[in-house]
Structures are given as structure tokens and as C-alpha cells.
Design goal:
Number of domains: 2
CATH architecture of the largest domain: Orthogonal Bundle
Radius of gyration: 20 Å
Distance between the termini: 27 Å
Shape: elongated
Number of strands: 11
CATH class of the largest domain: Mainly Alpha
Strand order of the largest sheet: 2-9-5-4-3
Bound molecules: zinc ion
Order of helices and strands: HEEHEEEEEEEHHHHHEE
């Protein structure tokens, strides 16, 4: 599932192509993908220009002329790709915006994603966006620390909760907790202020490094130009079940925390 670094990378790569492009046509091949229903969606969006792109948590917003915005939920396997004219579209393409130059495609293997057309003023009261907490770098180390101290939930469950911190998913929580030497089931309030400040710093660093390397291409993630990221080559625990811990050589353990598959080192993470 695209997390904060992947959606940020999609935003940055699409921002090279989309602003000022006009939508000339819209082919919807999977009706359940769009809101409102295809006919109205298409009628409303055709003729509009793309103004700019914005990311909120794991959501991407394409701001359009006509006081409209397109809210993209990628869920597990959604891809939004700019395709120059004359190039072959990727498999599982369910929607094509025909632009005055090139095309914007939405592809989705598992078909859980959504493209929702909103009026600009509806953004601020959209339920998915309304409940988003601050992004990690919008918190000071002190406020992050207080947030953990007030919670008796397991560390991993708390960090995955988008209403507490926006943008972190399974990959970056597992990677950050390993780098911080913290066990995913530790109670959030049990961290010392030093441990909490270190964790906050590590989360910000891991996300920045992941953005700089174009995100993690696990499952089928690609950026807005159809290219893979490379942060998966730097994963220390995620997807490395049974392989030796890079620090102590103990096999990486795998369990379920907060109903998510969780990778950790049973020796290094306390
Ligand atoms: Zn270890």
C-alpha cells in the first residue's frame, strides 16, 4: 500500500507533467472506481485544467479548475501514471484521462482504490481527511513525546493510527521501530522521554530517506512516471522474515500486531 513516501513521490513525479494540462476526455472502465457515478464524473471533469497537486497523509489531491479537486485513495495497489502519447498503457488500467498532451491513467490490480471528485469547499469536511492527524515532522519532539506518554496502546498500533499521526503504514513503522531498538508491542506510555525523542527523529529520517529514494516498491508500487522506487533495498526488517538481523544475526521474527504482519528482531528490539 502506498504510504507517505510513495504518495509524495507520485505527487512529485506527476507535478512535472500535470499542471496546466487540460482534460479533454475521460474513459471509465470500472464504474465503482469513481464518485460521483461515471456519467456525472466524466461530464464534470472534462474541460477542466489541472492546477496543482497536494498530498495529505497517504491521500493525493489534484486541484482542478472549476473549483474542483480529485481525491485519490490508492489503497493496496492503486497507481496513477502519466503516459506520454503513443505509449502502451499498463495492465489493469481502469480509467484514462485524455489530456491535451499525454494521458493520466489509473491502474489498480486489486481494485480497492477510489477517485473522488469534490468541490473545493468539501475537502475540509471530507471524513477521510478530517480525521487525519499531523504528519511526523509537524510534531515537535516534545509533542510527540506527550502523545506517547498519554497512550496505553501498543506502540505499533498507535503509530499506524492515521488520526494520531498521518502517513505511516506497515513498512515504515516496522523499519522505524527496528532502527529505534523498540519492540512493536511495547506500551507507548512506557517509553522514556529519550526513547520517544529518538523514535521521533528516526521516523522523520526514515521517511525522508524513503522519499529521496523514490519510495519502496513492494507489491506493485510505481511512481507517477511508472518507475519503481529503491528504498526496499534498504529495508532492514520489513519483508526479511527468517533472514539474519543486520545487527545481531538473530533471524528476523514475524508476528501479528494491530492485525498487521509485523517484522522485528527479538533481540535488538526491547
Ligand atoms: Zn538483532
Amino acid at each position: 500500500m502506498p504510504e507517505l513516501p510513495e504518495v509524495e513521490t507520485i505527487k512529485r513525479t506527476l507535478s512535472k507533467h500535470l499542471p496546466s494540462r487540460q482534460i479533454k476526455g475521460c474513459e471509465i472502465r470500472l464504474p465503482k472506481l469513481v464518485l460521483p457515478a461515471p456519467e456525472e464524473f466524466s461530464r464534470t471533469v472534462v474541460g477542466q485544467k489541472v492546477l496543482e497537486l497536494e498530498r495529505r497523509g497517504k491521500f493525493l489531491l489534484l486541484h482542478l479548475s472549476g473549483n474542483l479537486s480529485l481525491l485519490c485513495h490508492f489503497r493496496l495497489t492503486g497507481q496513477l501514471i502519466y503516459l506520454p502519447d503513443g505509449q502502451e498503457e499498463p495492465p489493469h488500467t481502469h480509467l484514462r484521462f485524455i489530456l491535451d498532451q499525454g494521458n493520466l491513467l489509473y491502474a489498480d490490480l486489486r481494485q480497492f482504490g477510489k477517485l473522488e471528485l469534490l468541490k473545493r469547499e468539501e475537502i475540509s469536511r471530507h471524513p477521510s481527511l478530517l480525521k487525519l492527524g499531523p504528519e511526523p515532522w509537524e510534531l515537535t519532539p516534545e509533542t510527540f513525546c506527550q502523545l506517547l506518554q498519554r497512550s496505553h496502546r501498543q506502540l505499533k498500533a498507535l503509530l499506524l493510527d492515521q488520526s494520531v499521526i498521518a502517513g505511516l503504514g506497515n513498512i515504515y513503522v516496522d523499519e522505524s521501530l527496528f532502527r529505534a531498538g523498540l519492540h512493536p508491542t511495547r506500551k507507548a506510555s512506557s517509553l522514556s522521554p529519550e526513547e520517544a525523542v529518538k523514535l521521533h527523529h528516526i521516523i522523520c529520517e526514515v521517511l525522508k530517506e524513503a522519499i529521496a529514494t523514490g519510495g519502496s516498491s513492494v507489491r506493485n508500487y510505481v511512481d507517477g512516471e511508472g518507475k519503481s522506487g529503491t528504498f526496499q533495498e534498504r529495508h532492514l526488517v520489513y519483508g526479511r522474515r527468517g533472514q539474519p538481523c543486520p545487527r545481531c544475526k538473530t533471524p528476523i521474527a514475524y508476528t501479528t500486531v494491530a492485525s498487521r504482519g509485523t517484522h522485528f528482531c527479538p533481540v535488538c528490539q526491547k
